[in-house]
Automatic annotation (TrEMBL):
Membrane association type: Multi-pass membrane protein
Keywords for this protein: Membrane, Nitrate assimilation, Transmembrane, Transmembrane helix, Transport
Family: Belongs to the major facilitator superfamily. Nitrate/nitrite porter (TC 2.A.1.8) family.
Top-level lineage group: Bacteria
Transmembrane domains' residue ranges: 21-40, 52-70, 82-100, 106-127, 139-162, 168-187, 222-240, 252-272, 284-302, 322-345, 357-382, 388-407, 473-490, 510-531, 538-558, 564-583, 604-629, 649-669, 690-713, 725-743, 755-774, 780-799, 833-854, 866-886
NCBIfam families: 2A0108 (TIGR00886)
Chief place where the protein resides: membrane
PANTHER family: HIGH-AFFINITY NITRATE TRANSPORTER 2.3
Protein's UniProt name: MFS transporter
UniProt xrefs under Pfam families: MFS_1
Domain Major facilitator superfamily (MFS) profile: 15-415
Amino acid sequence: MSPALPEAAAEGAGRALWKSTAAFTACFAVWTIFSIIGLSIKEELGLSETQFGLLIGTPILTGSLSRLVLGVWADQFGGRRLFVLVMLLAAAATFLTSFAHSYITLLIAALGVGLAGGAFSVGVAYVSKFYPQSQQGTALGTFGAGNVGAAVTKFVAPFVVVAMGWEAVAQIWAVALAVMAFVFLLLTKEDPGRFARQRGVRAVPSAAAQLAVLRNLQVWRFSLYYFFVFGAFVALALWLPRYLVGVYDLDIKTAGMLAAFYSIPASLFRIYGGRLSDRYGARAVLYWTFGVSVLCTFMLSYPPTTYIIEGIAGPITFSTSMGLVPFVVTIFVLGFFMSLGKAAVFKHIPVYYPNHVGAVGGLVGMIGGLGGFVLPLAFGMLNDLTGVWTSSFALLFLLVSTAFLWMHLTIRRMENAAARAGQAEPTPELPEMIGMGEPGASIPPRAGAIKDWRPEDRKFWEGTGRPVARRNLWISTYCLLLSFAVWMVWSVVVSRLPAVGFAFDTGQLFWLAALPGLSGATLRIFYSFLVPVFGGRLWTTVSTASLLIPAFGIGYAIQTPDTPFLIFLVLALLCGFGGGNFASSMSNISFFFPKREKGNALALNAGLGNLGVSLMQFLVPMVTTLGLFGALGGGPQVTADGEQVWMQYAGFVWVPMIIAGTLAAWFGMNDILCAKASFAEQAPIFRRMHTWLMCWLYTGTFGTFIGMSAGFPLLSRMVFPEVNALNYAFLGPLVGAVSRAATGWVADKYGGARVTFWVFVAQIVAIAGMIWFLNLGSFLGFFAMVLFLFFASGVGNASTFQMVPGIMRIEIDRTAANLPPPERRKQAERESAAIIGFTSAIAAYGAFYIPRAYGSSIDATGSANAALWAFGIFYVTCAALTWWVYSGPRGILRTTERGAVPQPVTA
């Protein structure tokens, strides 16, 4: 058994790490040189796509195959001098490449250039000897960031090719690598393992002993993972310039710079991936890497397609394709997650195989490097066979899906085996490593959720609970803000569709404004029960990521007036993903805070989340007229008065924000294990009368807010066509969101039922004012009443939710008096969270029925008065119900809200 690695890094570790990273950057720049000079060679020699793929892949083949041997030698004799030797040999081969001008001689020269790629396994063995296990992920992630050398080549080499020819690139890169070799030799020292061998403390292991460890199955499974995260990275780094030139007709300089836009995140963020692997474990990082990569490669693999639908009046034709900006954004995201995955794979090698880092790392690196050889060749062959450019990404989609499925099935099998054996301890981050590795290797435990959560305990809350709860609150609020923005985006978009050539009638436009409310409200019914089932962290992450589907879809579909109305109906329904998120967000946050702060916390989460509507109604009109990315995001549309607009940015502008929110939710939020519950445990709320009464009341407050947000822009355009209401539409949701966030304390102090009653009185006054000023034809008066209605609904949104925990405490004490106080408290909190989510689901139908009521009223009577009168009568019923059941003399909350202190429930 080998001695344990030291807890602190060895002397000179920092210098060895950064000098090795710089040397590996130079090696990688040389290793991928054919991705640029190969384009000139292809044109000069008239190569086919398959010949071109073989040429750019040959250096990758040599670099991959040499990694295993070089890794073993690095473990046996030390990595420093071997690193220098490899760089000098690669530099010589690169210089000689400039004198090769036939296809055969270029292939032979490329074999020698590939030695630069073999330096990776030498560097891994060398750097790992300086660091303890707890820092291996960060150290090797930093070293692996030398992949950025590919970006250096793509940025600089095209300009050298244009100015001096491809031969000059080979000569300059060779000289630079030779200089780096001598600098590395002068500024670094031998690794601690070599000193130990020189003193006789450790014997030099034989090659057979080094290779014996490769019999372990998990080493080959790691190799499969690395075949995608590294092999596909190298393949795309080589292939993207050719792809961009062929698909988007770019020149070589622009194609090289955009390809570097992929290479940089796929390299530098490997450092961050190492830190994440050290902190959260490689399992979580790999799950995210494969999951996002499946989504990205699927989107990239979808070819430009023309659809023909046999309509009633004849064929309906429309086309879909990915523009340059969406392509670059998607490839950036793919590169980012692949960089995290590269670090996650190599996190475990020095932990499980501290004496065989070179051999194991060499094999894994070799298999990964072979991906960089095989895949470009396969890309070229697929192009020749299918004639479809996106076939390369279809191959990557199949590859990552296979790796993802194999990893997940292995993990589930190990977890089930542990459960059958009655093992209470969680499985390691990568369960396939159970019982594997060298003797004495410590298996890192799997990161878990919060098991002990007692917010009603003031000491626990002040010392531990509040910081965690606040972090989850702010991340949840940001994600909810994006959800509301995507949910309500059609309220602005529909008002501009006729101006850019879409021949939709008034009824169709109101349907597009209303359908997100219908689907969002329906999804809320299901979402409200999913947080206790799946956990708040996982569900917030998944639900936020789902917003990418309508965001991309709107951006693609809105660029051509030929897109049929059916496609817009589907996209409007998909925007309901944003509406559904509210129920799960509120349900999740309610678990984190004590009752005395629950009202304010829910008000902040919902109120600031509601700001997404105002943000969207302010931001979308601005970004669609500025053309932030010019023609790169697709061409502009020209309105009837000659104005240029880029309506696609109504969808695309949210994409980077959604990606940031998804990452923040996964890495920043927590699950509370005691909040886990099945649907059956939440089902009793359907038998409680108060569930349905609160649905009625919350429809009067939140249904008003979200319905007016969806319907007001189009309504004002219909009844006041002389006013550009889009300039003011964002003010209503802004007032409603701010009033909700700022008045949660009012309900906590004076009682939710008392505040809710007066809210409905105010809403009745607001509706009467809207009818009055509408009949007078005064937009200013009408708009003032609309703002007053938004303000009142915001206050009521906070106060109605504040009522729910108090109602359920009383109801559970009445119906389950035989349960111990802690069990009654837990059941009350569980049902309160479910009711909050379910009532929000029912109330969200306001986003559907209010726009539809306006549209029906205008179609039937020529005015919106009939709809407004119906709303006023509804508010009268809400006020009467609140007074009779909750706040009046016979109301169940009157005693607790008028100063009497209920008996505390002690844990």
